[in-house]
Amino acid sequence: MQVHEPSPVFVGRHHHLSLLAADARRTLPEGARTVLVCGGAGIGKSRLFSEHLRRVSGTPSAVGGCLELGAEGVPFAPFTALLRQLVRSGGSAAEPSGDTGRLIPELGGAAGPADQGRARLFEAVLTFLEERATPHGLTLVIEDLHWADTSTRDLLVFLLRNLGRTPVHLLVSVRTDDLHRTHPLRRLLPELERLPGVRRLDLEPLSRDEVGAQATALRGRELDPADLDLLFERSGGNPLFVESFLAASHDPAGAPIPDGPRDLLLSAVEPLPEPTRRVLGLVATAGTRVRHTLLASVARRAGVTEEDLEAALRPAIDARILRSTADGYVFRHALLSEAVHTDLMPGERVRAHRRYAEVLQEGVERMPESELALQLAHHAHCAHDQPLALSAAWRAAEHAAAVHAYPEHLGLIERVLELWDQVPDAAERVGLPRDQVLARASEVSLVAGPLRRAVGYATEGLEELGVTGVHDPRKGRPENFERVSRLRHARGRALKELGRDGAMEDLAEASLLLTFNHPDAPGVAATLAATFMMRGHHEQAASTARRVLARARELGDPRSEADALITLGSLSGPLDSDEGLELFAEGIGLAREIGDAPAEIRGLINLSGYFKNLDRLEESAQVCLEGMRRCREFGLTRTQGGAFACGLAVTRFYQGRFSECEELLAGVTDGGVTWARALTLRMHLELYRWRPDALRATLDEFHRVLPAQVSSPVEHLPVHAVLQQLAVYEDRLVDAGRMARDLLSSATGERPLTPLAHGLYRSTQVWHASIVARLAEQPGEEARRLAQEIRELSEKAAANPEHADSPAARMAARAWLAPEPEESLALFEAAVAAVAPSGHVLVRAEYQLAAAGAALRAGHRDRATEHVDAVHGMAVRHGMALFERESRALRARHGLPDPDQYTATGATPERTALPAAPGGEVPPMGLTPREVEVLAEVAKGSSNREVGAALFISAKTVSVHVTNLMGKLGVRNRTAAAAKGRELGLF
Questions:
Q1: Nearest to 276 by CA among 309, 318, 230
Q2: Higher-confidence residue: 550 or 318?
């Protein structure tokens, strides 16, 4: 059977082609449009792009593809290719700037200083594309996004969010069957699809008729219907497999079904001449694509002249195994490359990789140094040349650092450390001792890796220097004091972020080792100031930060200056909010200007919490969203994005948007303080959903993450708060009073209860005032004594301006302690009115429920009913089971009308009351009439057997009823159930 060249006929994708054309026409009047073309391997994504580009040939275009190099990837590879093509094609746009020139330095762009920042690089690429797209538009194709490195994905997201009205048509292909469960695109693609101007286009397998049309075009005649049925069944409608079957030397009807796609793909390679198959092995060793100059040099080392190389390549190109590009060759499909490479014998693979490494070591014309270093590291590693692999990996790491490709930078440093012990002269090759490579690994892990790994690398570096404890100042500085200080600083920063003890000691040691005039001293002191703040030593934090600020400005150290400004902004109280926001703006702006990603991210995290503490919830949410966007641009979503997700979750929690809150928390996976804060928020969620057992289980997990004896006490303050609330709602008022007294005692000492940056510790005055008021109504000397102690401690704390609360909170605190019910009611209603505009649903519900109680004490049942109705409505609407429970209890206790009942009957609230006795039709708290009967007997002190005898049921049935009613009442024992029943007026 003769197989013709692949047909120029375009089969089966006309609808998709029309969609691409329609999208392209919209770019000039409407702005940038993006199409994510998704499908399995060989489904025809590249063919669709080629056909579309052919039909819009009048529009400037460029194509770039992502490279597969094992676990690594060339940072920004497709964008480098796109920019290079656009520059070579000429046009009205300016030549690359110094920032863009970092991606294409061989075309005249000068590489700028590394500290100009990734953000400036992204802006430079955006500006270049904006200029090149004017006035006729621009079509850009990025192929194989599933192989993209983190930096490429980040730049793509940045462009999608910022191209705006620029007439760019961006086409991106994704091989969906490569998206395993943990693949980053599994989470990124849905986010991209939600962006304006972005659409997803899924390519399905061809139909039977379309497979027949493709086969006819390839063979020059129609297939027999039975052969077509078999071909369609075997290929599954995959165009690549259809071509592979038909390119084989056998008829599809008579050939056995191949063992798998590899055999199917190789069946098109096997008929090729032996020299062609050998050259294809060399091409596949490079990956899916290779430069001609590189391949020619490698082939010469394999004994193949350039003439023989071209002769060998021709059959592969004619058979559409390869296609030629402007500067090299690319496999028609990545699966072909994989199949050819895996078909090589192990010795052949090693020799091929060694030849590539030798050529790359000598240099390749017009290949950027960054790409050369990364490819050399890959091939040397595969060739088992560990010394060369180590040297190349270090060079590639330097290039990754220069373009702020943080994840790639860390991966390459870790490759160097992995190879270190196998290379005797590793230190000479790298130019640094191993402890300093470990220091760099620790520093990069602070941004792009697990924090515990940062601690581990720094600890290993200190052990390498023989440092196990603190140095004795009387003996002078150790010989390697700068190296020791750097490692101490890195470990201290990691421990700070983990919320673990040891951070202060490491930072103090790092500071003591340096002289006052040492250039690293302000940076260490800035970290120390931030650590003081996190651990509640606010006066020391402020004084240290002010000294750092002055010294940094004197020395011209913008990094330390930005860090100090952010710390001082975080320490500003609500009464100084204008000044605090100015400090934040200056610090974050400076960090962004110099490309200091860690400082910028820290500033945005703290600013979000600061807005929360000012009850400016939506502004807090917007800062979190901005932080998430910046993390994506920096390639730090996995390691830093959790803090913003947690911060946004807190805001949504306060707004009563519990489902959104839970969705955000599900994305928080990083350890340390962020994970602990997520657990704290989960405890609050369980409280307001009234799931005490789940709350206690989460508490246990929190203590495993942040054991109290080895972590910052400040991080435990929100946990103390939620436990106090739980005790109150479980009728353990004395326990709640003891916790409040102990907490306030510590607050008036060295660690004030200033609201934390993550915003989970709030309205301390209000809550403690409510405990005082509740304890005052309890019998017993201890309750009265606790109330007095808490009141005195609260007044002492409130006198400190650092404890200044919001106006609404101050009114609510006064309301709880007001001697006259009328005054209390007026203050609570004023607090409700003040907090309502902020959208703070939880606080409003708390204040309004308290207002209902004050109205009842003042004899205003109608106003009490209005407040209870409002609380009940919010509780049902937002899933706040706690407030639904409390509002129902208040209705039952005082005979207030039930909204469900009067809504059903059409009666007004004043005319219909909820029955409060066992004889009523609607028992409160979801209790059944039988459970009320059982509870009444339990209240008499009867055993299960005695209850059963009284109600003519078995003791086992009584046990089931008791368990159920205790769950509904939210109590843990029979005594508490009886007390709750009396409180509800059930007997």
A1: 309
A2: 550
